[in-house]
Design brief:
The complex is a heterodimer.
Chain A lengths: L1 E8 L3 H8 L2 H7 L3 E6 L4 E10 L2 E12 L6 E9 L5 E13 L2 E13 L1 H6 L3 H25 L1
Antiparallel strand pairs in A: 1-7, 2-3, 3-4, 4-5, 5-6, 6-7
Chain B lengths: L6 H8 L11 H4 L16 E7 L5 E7 L1 H5 L3 E5 L1 H4 L6 E3 L5 E3 L5 E2 L5 E7 L2 H10 L1 E6 L6 H4 L30 E8 L1 H9 L3 E12 L8 E7 L4 E6 L4 H12 L6 E4 L15 H13 L3 E4 L2 H7 L2 E13 L5 E13 L26 E10 L5 E3 L7 H19 L3 H8 L8 E2 L5 E2 L4 H11 L2 H16 L5 E11 L11 E2 L2 E2 L2 E7 L5 E5 L8 H13 L6 E5 L16 H28 L6 E4 L2 E4 L2 E7 H10 L10 E6 L8 E11 L5 E11 L6 H20 L30 E5 L17 H18 L13 H10 L5
Parallel strand pairs in B: 1-14, 12-13, 15-18, 16-17, 25-26, 32-33
Antiparallel strand pairs in B: 1-7, 2-6, 2-8, 3-7, 4-5, 9-17, 10-15, 11-12, 11-14, 15-16, 19-20, 21-31, 22-23, 24-25, 24-30, 27-28, 28-29, 31-32
Helix pairs in contact in B: 11-19, 15-16, 16-17, 18-19
Classes of the chains: A alpha+beta, B alpha+beta.
Chain lengths: 150, 808
Amino acid sequence: MELSDEIIINAPKDRVYAALNDPEILQQCIPGCEELIKHSDTELEAKVVLKVGPVKAKFSGDVQLDTTGAPDAFSLTGQGNGGTAGHAKGGADVTLTADGDQTILRYEAKADIGGKLAQLGSRLIQSTAKKLAAKFFKSFADVVNEERVT
Amino acid sequence: MKDEITREERVDNLKGMGCSRKRVEDARFTQGKGNYVDDIKLDGMLFGDFVRSPYAHARIKNIDTSAALEVPGVLAVLTAADLEPLGLHWMPTLAGDKQMVLADGKVLFQGQEVAFVVAEDRFAAADGIEAVVVDYEELPVIVDPFKALQSDVVLREDLVAEDGTIPDGAHGPRKHPNHIFTWEAGDKAPTEEVIANADVVAEESMYYHRTHPCPLETCGCVASMDKVNGKLTLWGTFQAPHAIRTIVSLISGIEEHNIRVISPDIGGGFGNKVGAYPGYVCSVVASIVTGKPVKWVEDRMDNLMTTAFARDYWMKGKISATKDGKITGLQCHVTADHGGFDACADPTKFPAGFMNICTGSYDIPTAYLEVDGVYTNKAPGGVSYRCSFRVTEAVYFIERMVEVLAIKLNMDAAELRRINFIKKEQFPYTAALGWEYDSGDYHTAWDKALKAVDYDGLRKEQAERVAAFKRGETRKLMGIGLSFFTEIVGAGPVKNCDILGLGMFDSCEIRIHPTGSAIARLGTISQGQGHATTFAQILASEIGLPADSITIEEGDTDTAPYGLGTYGSRSTPVAGAATAMAGRKIRAKAQMIAAYLLEVHDNDVEFDVDRFAVKGAPEKFKTMKEIAFAAYNQAIPGIEPGLEAVSYYDPPNMTYPFGAYVCVMDIDVDTGVPEIRRFYALDDCGTRINPMIIEGQVHGGLTEALAVALGQEIAYDDMGNCKTGTLMDFFLPTAWEVPNYETDFTVTPSPHHPIGAKGVGESPHVGGVPCFSNAVQDAFRPFGNTHTNMPHDHWRIWKTANELGLHD
């Protein structure tokens, strides 16, 4: 499954980049995220409750960040396991481009999904993933914008 | 004594063979009074369910059941480690392979059984399943059998010796760790020579996709071990209850007399319920462990993902002919994807079933077939989904090859068939791949079918449609699907047919009651076929008691005689023959009793519908009812009391039903939607016992054929995810898709069957799949199509149209 999109965030690039690396903000924005622990600058551990169609499961997984492209690019890879519900692994490449006061965020994500999620969700998963990504970036944009206002 | 009703009325009163007697089963089914496995509720009954693998190939590093055991209502969690001391962590499959009951160190397909959670109810079991923590290490997944034969990834490490050599399998040498067997029929060198020197050769590769029988009722069982008397009772959705009893005894060590297997009402089987599944073994073990009855019933996903798929044959063929279209040779190679374990339900000597019926209805002098079985990371199975042991694959193959040859020869496909049919006078006919066809009259059936549909008129209309399409006046193409099939059913002669060493005879035991009614028990089991109706009709005609006075009972191994069950259209050919033969034993004794009562010699009485009458003096007779009473209650010198008989029937040959089908289809090239305008089905199943039931079977079989040809599949992605595990993705036709079927028949009785019957349950499926598929292919023939793979769902049809440039 592949996803890509671009959104405009009403904040400067370095601020967006910092927010992308802030576990608190991420936890706030990732739909269903119950826990996000930062083990190091590049290693995170997440617990996320995910619902695809009739399957609802708690995923726990590891996320590795690649920040070598900072502050223009940012990559992450991860894998999660939802027990009987299935498992997923994948990654995303994010690029940030300054556009005046704003930042254009583009992402390309790829995921392999297995188990019940894939079986039940083969026709739901793409739309669900799109929805979740949109939700994440909307919350993310809102949070970053809000911070700027305050 | 005066005869008050006419002979004709006496015949009618019996409701014997040939009568469209209403199904006696339906009174209970239509009122919701059926008794299925899930209806069984016993005191203190527990429920077991599986933790299943989300991975298609993975090593199991650890299974932690501790949290699951804390879940309220969960009593036990079984793993392979618990079954190992009992030797029950692996079990034999019907194909001579062995299969893990619970994952033993690794999993080989998605949905594989990893642990069995036993709880007070289904809900607690589901909670328990969520709490079992399994630590998997992913392994590379192989879902393509061709890649499996090239890969270094070994799926079945248990089948490779420590020094890396590959021991023989159940069916001989294996050439790669992921290879199961090579099976051959016919003569290779002569066939290759004929094809190399032929005027015309057509070649085609086709994939008969993996699909699933998907019965309305899923598989399940209730195991109840009575520890006081040592008896195990096992209710289950078993198509072969006696075989299950023997297998349970062999693998559990419980003596067979202490096992009672009961198949209650079954909501469709279609082959899905022939095999032995881990759920049965785990339920039995769980009942022994807990001392309580344990129920296991699959949900729909479990059923589609794990129990008994069908087909998955990659077939490559060559067919040769003279310039005028006389077929001279046929060659076929199959790469058979068997999944993680070889659990095919085939007779032992036939690891590719009866695929060697692939010369079809044609007089093909030389042929060669080679089948390679392969392991992949898919669910095991390989059952005959409404067909006798790979016969749909064989018939699909030949009926496609004939069409492809017709294109090559630029000949009409109906005519090509006609000039190659085995002629009536050639029967019994020994085919190049070994089978002896018992009887047939193909030309008569074909001519009748083509006339009924006005074949020439259809071709004319089709040509006009193509012209109109090219002029841009329509976007719909017309396809004429033809199929002429020969089935091979009624397995089978014990000399060459056994499953796990169990001979494929069948049986009937009849008890006549003193007042002239009867009970008959058979080794088969109805799953909707209407046995209680039709077998009573056979008996009514044989013993002269009304069908309405005869109870048919099946499925309880404590009472029914041993038999190999119902699948592969074997019930009527085998158990139906046993029924007739047992009836004839009853009649022989009745004849002696009648002669005594009429004070004449045995040879001076003759059977007439419902009585024995003195030859030449029909007014002197004793009805079977009177004879039954006398059999029990009159002291007859030299004859012991009672009127009972049992017959175990070992058929001398298979039976060979055949049929001619025509489908007329209109295809919208822009949406890919096929509309079936007409479907004509002529079946010759020999003697017809109950025409109404035959018609019902034909409708059902055709509908399942439509499903398979036009959309039904079990599909996997590259990770081994089963993508069609629910009825949202797995196509089951509804009234919306099903056309009106026209049924017809000819009657060519089987010469070796006691009543000449051949079986019909599967014919419409076997003949229907190529007919629907040929209609789709035929619609695109004028635009250069020779073959596209099934299932022809809307998307694939659209794609075919697109690739042929019809959207330009």
